[in-house]
Amino acid sequence: MEVINFADRPSLVSRYMMELRDVTVQHDPLRFRTNLDRIGQIMAYEISKRLDYKDTVVDTPLGKCTCQEPAERVVLATILRAGLPFHHGFLNYFDRAENAFVSAYRRYKEKGDTFDVLVEYLASPSLEGKTLVLVDPMLATGSSMELAYRALLTKGTPAKIHVASVIASRLGVDYVKEHFPADTVLWCGAIDEEVNAHSYIVPGLGDAGDLAYGEKE
Prior knowledge:
Elements: E1 2-5, H1 12-21, H2 29-48, E2 53-60, E3 63-70, E4 74-80, H3 83-93, E5 98-108, E6 115-123, E7 131-135, E8 138-139, H4 143-152, E9 160-169, H5 170-179, E10 185-192, E11 194-195, E12 201-202, H6 208-213
Parallel strand pairs: 1-10, 4-5, 4-7, 7-9, 8-9, 9-10
Antiparallel strand pairs: 2-3, 5-6, 11-12
Helix pairs in contact: 1-2, 2-3
């Protein structure tokens, strides 16, 4: 599996990542969502370079011009709720993509830090033969990403798969390598080395859903 870590080659993503992590900036939910959106746009542009294209002839005011457009049908899939602003960034660029949404959440057990990941909702077009771009800001253990992927497979088998996260843990990266097809491409804004007892990425940035939309009970 190919893993692209944007932190390996500093770019504007590095600035947006810094603001996402900074507790002095995190008090501004609009700024937080905007930075997720921006990183999604940049990743979408990079992924677009991997697509197949076809020639299309268009009429201009002065004649005909041969242009190129994607030959692949793209489906953008997102895990609710933290994935929404990240998804929006991708959709700004893949504006003709179909969209899929999966509700996956942690249900903690009564004692300790162990939890089950549950999928309760799925809305998706057919994925058969299409290019699946599965996005979620945080790739901690990888279990939510895998369950979302398994749920999506009930809608068909994609021809290509891209997985995108803003911050991944080394554990999550290894998990995706083990549980996704070998030709999957994994895109990460940064890869952190640790996951704590609560399965949060360290240093990470905290709870992306709460920072984007407010705390939940």
